[in-house]
Amino acid sequence: MYSLAVTRTGGAEVQGKFLRLERAESLRLLTTVQVGRLIFTVNALPAVRLMNFAMIGGLIVLRTAADTTVARKVDNVIVAFEADELDAVTSSGWSVVVIGRATRVIDPEVIARYQDVALIPWAPGERDQFLTITTEVIDGRRVSRPAGSGSPDRLSEYVDRDPQWSCG
What we know:
CATH class: Mainly Beta
Strand order of the largest sheet: 3-4-5-8-7-6
Helix content: 10-25%
CATH architecture: Roll
Number of domains: 1
Largest sheet: 6 strands, antiparallel, barrel
Shape: globular
Distance between the termini: 39 Å
Structural class: alpha+beta
Strand content: over 45%
Number of helices: 4
């Protein structure tokens, strides 16, 4: 389905197409990227952390340090996890949001298996804690701009041409 937007001159233009992805396609896309956003709460306030991850056996697997907020706050709680791949030039890409239960891994055999996975933490220091997130609810979407629709307007173009958009 294409969405319409009203232009500054009052005309309508096709902006792009949103397509809801099936569960299997969403899970497949998650295997193609290495970084996502973990969304959880700290003292009833939203928190978001960039995390590198791997998909293993239908679970999202994260690696962190024992003294991190993530390790302390997300054991046995419902969290969201979002990963995407977007191209600003073509106004296209995909996004997958997963909602599931995060659990700290305590089984030594499972920890040993996860240590063998190519899940190299980007952050410095020892990262010896593993967390998994179930994939209870998955909402995947693909967005694309129709072929030949031109480049999207940019706010800076309006600021340069129209004083109503200026801040001064």
